[in-house]
Amino acid sequence: MNTLEEAQSQSTTTSDRAMYLVLVLVVIAGYIPTLFMIQEPLTSPTVLTMLALGALFIFIGVFVFDWITRQDRLSLYLMYFLVQLAIATTVVYLTPASGALWLMALPLVGQAVIVLSRSWLIFYAVLVVAVFIIPGGFLYGWDDALASILGYAAGVVFVVVFTQVYVNELNARTEIQHLAARLEDMNRQLGAYAVQVEELATTKERNRRAREIHDSLGHFLTVVNIQLEAAQAVFESDPTTAQDALAKAQALTREGLAEVRRSVAALRASPMEGRPLEEAIETLLEKSRATGMLAEMRVSGQLRELAPQVEHTLFRAAQEGLTNIHKHARASHVTLLLDYSAEESVSLILEDNGVGLDPEGLGEGFGLIGLRERVKILSGEITITSEHAQGTRLEVRIPT
Question: Is pTM beyond 0.85 here?
Answer without folding.
Answer: no
